[in-house]
Amino acid sequence: MIKVLIVDDSPVVRTLLSHALGSDPEISVIGTASDGLEAIEFVSRNKPDVITMDINMPKMGGFEAIRKIMETHPVPIVIVTASWDPKDVTKTWMAMEAGAVHAVEKPRYLGDIDHDDALRELVQTVKLMSEVQVVRRWPPRVPAFTTPSAHGISKPVFSGIRMVAMGASTGGPPVIKEILSSLPENFPTPILLVQHMAPNFSRSFVYWLNQSTALGVSLAVHGEYPRPGKVYLAPDLVQMKINREGKIALTQDAPENGLRPSVSYLFRSVAKIFGKNSIGVLLTGMGRDGADELNLMKIRGAVTFAQDKESSVVHGMPGEAIKLGAASHVLPPDKIAEMLRMLLPGGSQK
């Protein structure tokens, strides 16, 4: 049985979520809390397998509670939110940075057309996230920049690179932020990005990323030419690729690996169109989306990166790629960013 703690200041929502999760034979709701302080106290005395957490609550909100729990008694935490106010959206993504592993939309009132779908999404997410092995998060510190040689890697020779393709799933948002925030506005290529997330979160993800990076981050638009120094995120529920004209194409093609957007779909198109003139980056995530296609990129001459196990929340996707020999380099996020900065004129490290 998957033991779940539900944290929300609304008694109605706690009852709704308790009923929805408890109706699944593999899930047992072992407790509820109305604020972050109650949640911290409960976790110190009990051992839930998963926590569902609201963001805005009295006494102590979700962000503060998540940070404290991940520093003391780490547990997979799923954010359940209904607020799209920019300040609250920022708190949601900050909570992901503090250690929450996923975010889903809070089920709406009973008569809403999306009510049942939202409940099914929540149940499935809780079951999947119960498999994530989280680790204790220490209070943040200022990162120290070192040269790649300090990690035992040689300086690569980048020539003719015209496209960077990046994919991530569980644990991806803070890693993507770390990488993009270290790249300057004169970064010489476009970046195409697929991040698996629940529907309706992509716009807030773009908003959050734009607070921390000099690059322009936007949702990709069908038919646009990707420009250097810009990041294009695949929108909800569509596949994203690059076509023969070098334009972004958004399609309703079938899911791959059960996913739309799919990293595999993007990487395959980049391998075909850009080949050796591209870079592939596969980050933390559950499953194997993108692994075979990262290998295809490498076979066609691309430089390929896979996130290392130690820094990954889930080492499924990059781990599968490493098993295939698909990664030219296996590195933590700060070193991936450092290597990408070598694309700058003169191989700048700043």
Could you characterize the architecture of this molecule?
With 350 residues, this protein is α/β, with parallel strands linked by helices. Helix content is 33%, strand content 19%. It has eleven helices and 14 strands. Strands 8-9-7-6-12-13-14 form a seven-stranded parallel sheet, sandwiched between helices. β3, α3 (62-72) and β4 form a beta-alpha-beta unit. α2 (36-45) runs parallel beside α3 and α3 (62-72) runs parallel beside α4. The chain is elongated.
Please name the CATH topology of the largest domain.
Rossmann fold
What is the oligomeric state here?
single chain
- Helix percent reads 25-40%
The CATH C-level name of the largest domain is: Alpha Beta
Architecture of the largest domain, CATH level 2?
3-Layer(aba) Sandwich
Q: Total number of β-strand segments?
A: 14
Instruction: Give the overall average pLDDT.
Output: 89
The class by helix and strand makeup works out as: alpha/beta
Count of individual domains = 2
- SSE succession: EHEHEHEHEHEHEHEEEEHEHEHEH
Low-confidence stretches: 141-153
By DSSP (H or I, 4+ residues per run), the number of helices equals 11
Fraction of residues in β-strands: 15-25%
Q: Cα distance, first to last residue?
A: 49 Å
- Report the principal-axis shape: elongated
How is the largest sheet built, in terms of strand order? 8-9-7-6-12-13-14
The CATH superfamily title of the largest domain: Methylesterase CheB, C-terminal domain
From the alpha carbons, calculate the radius of gyration and give it in angstroms: 20 Å
In this structure, how is the largest beta sheet organized?
Answer: 7 strands, parallel
